[in-house]
Amino acid sequence: MGADALPQQIIAKPVANDMKSNSAHKRNPGMALDLARIEDIRVNLSALERRAATLPGRRSVKKEYQAAWLLKAVSCIDLTTLSGDDTPGRVQRLCAKARQPVRQDLLDAMGFDRPLHTGAVCVYHDMVETAVKALAGTDIPVAAVSTGFPHGLSPLPQKLAEIKASVDAGAKEIDIVITRHHVLRGEWQALYDEVKAYREACGESRIKTILATGELATQRNVAKASMVCMMAGADFIKTSTGKETSNATLPVTLSMVRMIRAYHEMTGIKVGYKPAGGISKAKDALVYQALMKDELGFDWLQPALFRFGASSLLGDIERQIEHFVTGHYSAGNRHPIG
What is the pTM of this model? Predict the structure, then answer.
């Protein structure tokens, strides 16, 4: 199979260049909280659900186009381990997979000769130094979950100290969790002040705000919380911790990315989006990519502005790529993650 077998207009760009653009990407400085704009937010739930239901059938790609989109998806994965039994050895293996996410023989068979790695490695604070050392010499950032992850109910000074400790340990991205009751009680000033304090504690590290959308009760709450977090300076908004009963869904994604679009129209600032939790199949990744391109455009298919929070997704993508190359599906143990 020749090097031109994969469509060049959608193939994964050199990931080293992608990550340089990520580090140089203009951060969201935030703005003053506009409560009138927040209270004016409305969500047409039935229209949102109809749009989400039609996406999987209306946006499909096959053969070499599918392989190209899947390679792009690999470069946008925050390869994650957030288990109570994490060990340095597991994190080191995960980092090795992040550096070489798809087997070289498969890339060679497709004529793919560009650098390819995942968007980041995401771990608890205790494993940040291990991950930083394992990724030395690469452009792969380490993301640390923080602020009392996953519930976010620790005292504020403790949460701020946790952010600063992770930054000092080398984390270039901080995934924080918001206090859900601020949203449920409509305490938008409190949510704004909280996220603004988190952003300040992050310093030069990028901040991703986890909304835990499965616990916010309504799509209108999801939309309002998204906008408040962006006004407070969030560089990314993220659906879930992965620990809730309901995580990333297409309707939630539509609510959030439309707030990203509204914020961009209002300020000119591009804020990133990270669906997390429950995205484990390659076909799901393709649907999310199609949604991002439809709603926000090609810039939001790059790791600077789009990430999947996932662990098992990469294994299924690699299986699909092997099927593209060989015509056969392989066993999952041929594509270990960590």
Answer: 0.92
